[in-house]
Every structure is written in C-alpha cells, then in structure tokens.
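Example S7 (structure tokens).
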C-alpha cells in the first residue's frame, strides 16, 4: 500500500482531507515532471513512472471525492433546526406527518391540508411533507447535484413555467428630453416552456424502525431520497431528452460558434478526433473561454467529469505553471485557468466527436423549476413485511439563455 493510499483510509475531517489534496497534488506535479523529463531524454516515459503518476492521480481523485463528501456531511444541520417560525400549523403538520409515517393514520394530515386549502391527495395519492423537511431535501440536493448548485432555480405552483424572451434583443432607441417617443421597430417575443416532470423514489423501512420513537422520521426520509433525487436529476440536467424528464444541457441542437443562432448551443472543435491538439493543447480551452461575451465570462465555470479533468490536469502554461489547481480553501472548487471547475460524472468521456467539456455562466444559462411540494404515499402492502414510501417531487429544467454556454467538441469540425 502506497503512502497516498494509506493516507486516504479511515475517518478524516474536512481540513485533514483538504491538506491531503494539496500534498498529493504536489507529489503529482513532481511525478509528472519526472515523466516529462524522461520523455525529453529518452523519447519515452518509463513504465514505472507512468504507473506511479496514474496511482497518484487516482489517489488525488479519491481524496477529492472524500473532501466533497465531508463538506456535504459538515453542512447538514438537523431538520429540527430548520423549522420556520410563523408557518401556520407547522408543529401540527410535523406531528401529523410523523403519525402518518409510523402508523398510516391519515386523518390528521387530511384536516391540516384542507385548512391550508390544498388537495389532500395528488393523482397518485400521498401527502405533502412538512415545509422544513422539503426545504432540507432541496438544500441537500443542491450540495450533491452539480447543475442545481449553480443554475437558476424557480419555485412554481403550476405544472408548467413559461418565460418570455426576445431572440433579437429588446427594442430600444434614443430620444431627447422633449422629443416624441416614436414606436420602436417591431419586437419579436417568444416563450420558453419548462414543464415540471415527476421524479420518484421508494425507500423501504421495517415496522421496527418506524416504531422506534428515537428515530426522526423526517430526517430519515430526507436522507433516503435526497441522494437518489439528486443523482437522477443531475443526469437529466445534462443528458435529459425532455421526454418525461427535464431537457439536458447537451440535448439541444448544436452548431459551431461561428454560425451560432438562438435556440442552439454553440461549440468549438479541438481539431483532433477524441483528443486535444498534440501541440499547445490548452489553446482550445483559451479559445472556448473567449467565445463567451464578457458579461457571461466573468461568472464562467468549466463543466466536465473526473476522467476529463485528469487529462487536463497535466496541462501547463508557457511559464511552467500547471493550469489546474486544487481548491484554495475548504468549500472552494478546483480551478482551471482560474475559473472554477464544476464536476459532473454524467458528462461524457473524451471520445470521437463527444462534447465532454462545457464553459458557461450556468446561473444565466440553465433554469431549474421546482413545483412546490414533495409528496409521500405510505404503502404497507406491496412488499410485506416492509413499508414502502412512494416519494415524488416535480422538477423541470432547460437552457434559458443559449448565449451563456459553449461546448468543446473533441472532433475535427
């Protein structure tokens, strides 16, 4: 077992893991310099050196995963701390929800939801979870789901959200203080439609667990569904087709940045199939950054998976400095050319004509719509002796500003 592997075992706090990330990255740079030196001297790297570099690279990725997990765990307060004062019937709702989850008694929840003028059952039945639990689930999902953590998020109470936009820009003109205001040129207005799709999970519990008074039922349901929801929607926000799920970033029609028009995502080719150029490979990244206008570029982020990041980690500037840098503080992301990196395993790997890397102002580029209310339906019959909890939420998403995102295509054109 190597020193890097041994350091990654056992329980560690976030600060310790953060320090290990920097320690391992320094070892990674030393090993890569050794590899480059061997290539320069012998026209090829030693197998042992390449294996060492791959082992350190794996250890660095492993510690990054541990750091992400530690920061998520650190940011989770108990649900009781999330109760909002002044919410009508909050305590009553919480007690009735727990009673329903433990025993199936639904009269209390029906009475509360009738008072709140909301339907007691949706199309598939079930009852709304208490507001603090819903907020905590969404907050935890934002910690796990890469796109949700940086996109615009809007709550809606209807099945669809429509947003008006002007493809040609707003009509405007100059006038003097006392001049008449002539009608400007006709302005085209269109709608972007974001339907909310249903996402579900079915955690199971034993009756023994439900009978245990010490177990916080709201905490349990939040922990059971937030990761599942986050993983499912995270994949949809990138690759979703819009049929029964949100429209993903990569699902829209694509065109080269030079011929870009509204409704399509622009891309730059690397000029090489399934890879970067052999000389000055980072030039493609520089070009990609500057395809975004300044107003978007200042809030730009790179989006890629770990395999792509591992390949880019070897890139250096002409001054010899590495373009990839580990987080500078706890909770901060790694950076590439001083722009934050958003890591998403649902992004494709580098392959022929793949769009494995994106650069965008995601807050302006992508919109997520959450329909208010997470519902739970208790099912003690389908899988006896276990009790299933059919939990649903409605979420939609799609690109709202096609000018705020550009892709890198690993192809010739």
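Recovered sequence:
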């Amino acid at each position: 077992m190597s020193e890097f592997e041994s350091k990654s075992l056992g329980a560690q706090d976030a600060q310790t893991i953060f320090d290990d990330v920097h320690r391992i990255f320094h070892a990674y740079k030393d090993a890569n310099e050794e590899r480059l030196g061997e290539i320069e001297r012998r026209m090829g790297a030693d197998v042992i050196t390449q294996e060492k570099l791959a082992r350190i690279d794996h250890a660095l990725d492993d510690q990054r995963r541990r750091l992400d997990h530690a920061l998520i765990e650190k940011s989770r307060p108990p649900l009781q701390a999330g109760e909002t004062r002044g919410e009508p019937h909050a305590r009553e709702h919480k007690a009735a929800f727990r009673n329903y989850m433990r025993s199936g008694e639904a009269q209390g929840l029906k009475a509360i939801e009738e008072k709140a003028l909301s339907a007691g059952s949706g199309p598939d039945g079930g009852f709304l979870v208490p507001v603090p639990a819903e907020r905590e689930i969404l907050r935890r999902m934002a910690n796990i789901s890469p796109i949700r953590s940086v996109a615009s998020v809007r709550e809606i109470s209807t099945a669809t959200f429509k947003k008006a936009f002007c493809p040609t820009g707003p009509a405007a003109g100059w006038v003097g203080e006392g001049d008449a205001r002539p009608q400007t040129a006709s302005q085209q207005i269109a709608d972007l439609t974001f339907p909310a799709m249903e996402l579900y999970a079915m955690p199971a519990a034993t009756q023994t667990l439900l009978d245990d008074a010490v177990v916080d039922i709201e905490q349990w349901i939040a922990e059971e569904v937030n990761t599942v929801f986050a993983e499912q929607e995270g994949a949809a926000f990138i690759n979703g087709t819009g049929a029964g799920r949100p429209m993903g970033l990569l699902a829209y029609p694509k065109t080269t940045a030079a011929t870009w028009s509204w409704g399509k995502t622009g891309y730059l080719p690397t000029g090489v199939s399934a890879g970067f150029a052999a000389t000055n490979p980072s030039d493609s990244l520089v070009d990609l950054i500057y395809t975004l206008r300044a107003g978007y570029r200042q809030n730009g982020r790179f989006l890629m998976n770990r395999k792509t990041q591992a390949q880019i980690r070897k890139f250096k500037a002409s001054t010899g400095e590495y373009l990839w840098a580990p987080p500078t503080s706890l909770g901060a992301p790694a950076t590439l050319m001083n722009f934050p990196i958003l890591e998403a395993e649902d992004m494709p790997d580098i392959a022929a004509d793949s769009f494995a890397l994106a650069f965008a102002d995601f807050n302006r580029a992508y919109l997520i719509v959450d329909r208010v209310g997470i519902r739970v339906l208790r099912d003690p019959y389908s899988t006896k002796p276990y009790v299933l909890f059919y939990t649903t939420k409605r979420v939609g998403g799609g690109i709202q500003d096609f000018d705020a995102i550009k892709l890198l295509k690993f192809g010739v054109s």
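Notes on this example. DSSP finds twelve helices and 16 strands in the chain.
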